[in-house]
Amino acid sequence: MKTLSLPATALLLGSLLPLVGHAETPAATPGEGCVEVSVGGYKAPDYGCLSQQMGNNPDAAKAAQQNREALQVPIHKRPPNQMGLATPAATSTRMGNTFGTSVKPQRP
Question: Among residues of the chain, what percentage have pLDDT more than 70?
Fold first, then answer.
């Protein structure tokens, strides 16, 4: 097996140093702002950083739970039009001036 010469070894180690230094770079702390890059006149925000900043809200889980609870209205408390039932106001609009006097609606 051939051994590498001293200049080749130095070149190889020199090319690996930026990779080692890059691996030790600390991640962005939550207090730091996100970097926005402009390429060809279009701005490209760092969505990973923005998502991380938005995910650090301690009240988010509590707010999400309250939103889910607000959407879970019991069936007996829902308005009739949400359940597909006819309301007197909707029937009156559909029947028009024949409401209560005819079985044929004024409007179909």
Answer: 72
